[in-house]
Specification:
This protein has a domain at 50-132: Jelly Rolls. Helices cover 0% and strands 32% of the residues. The chain is built from no helices and 9 strands. The protein has a 4-stranded antiparallel β-sheet, with no helix packed on it. Strands 5-4-7 form a 3-stranded antiparallel β-sheet, with no helix packed on it. The chain has a two-stranded antiparallel ribbon with strand order 2-9. It is globular.
């Protein structure tokens, strides 16, 4: 084996760092389900040409997404913070950084934060022309549980 003058020599000094071999990738299914976060079963997909959308939501502390519904399935992954999902019937569930959840289809709901902001990435599996969500126009004061939240804060 011939070394070129510019090639570094391996260190023989005790305690020197020798790069380790790369490890195998870790693959973890974070979500695989046929029902949404509030146990509503998925019934199928809309007809049409498939369109995938990935959306990153930055939700400030003490704020709320508007009440809305979906006509297409979607999943979400909480990157940071915590997000509480609330269904119109009062069902609630809190998701923290590292959690994944499946959104409900046809069920009115919203997400809100408490003391910490949240970063959430949603993947929508829809069809061309289908909206990602449909606001219902309901205000925070018209709902069970948490009153008076608005997107601008409390």
């Amino acid at each position: 084996m011939t070394k070129t003058p510019n090639e570094p020599k391996p260190s023989t000094h005790p305690g020197s760092h020798v790069p380790s071999q790369p490890t195998a990738p870790t693959i973890t299914i974070t979500l695989q389900t046929g029902t949404s976060w509030n146990n509503k079963p998925y019934q199928g997909y809309p007809q049409g040409t498939t369109q995938l959308s990935v959306v990153r939501y930055s939700i400030p502390a003490h704020s709320s997404l508007p009440w809305h519904t979906h006509v297409i399935p979607s999943t979400a992954f909480v990157i940071s913070g915590s997000l509480t999902l609330q269904s119109i019937d009062g069902t609630q569930q809190v998701f923290h950084a590292g959690d994944a959840f499946a959104e409900s289809v046809g069920d009115e709901h919203r997400g809100y934060t408490d003391n910490d902001a949240a970063e959430v990435v949603c993947t929508y599996v829809g069809v061309n022309g289908a909206p990602l969500s449909i606001p219902t126009g309901r205000s925070g004061s018209d709902t069970p549980g948490r009153d008076g939240l608005a997107a601008s804060g409390r």
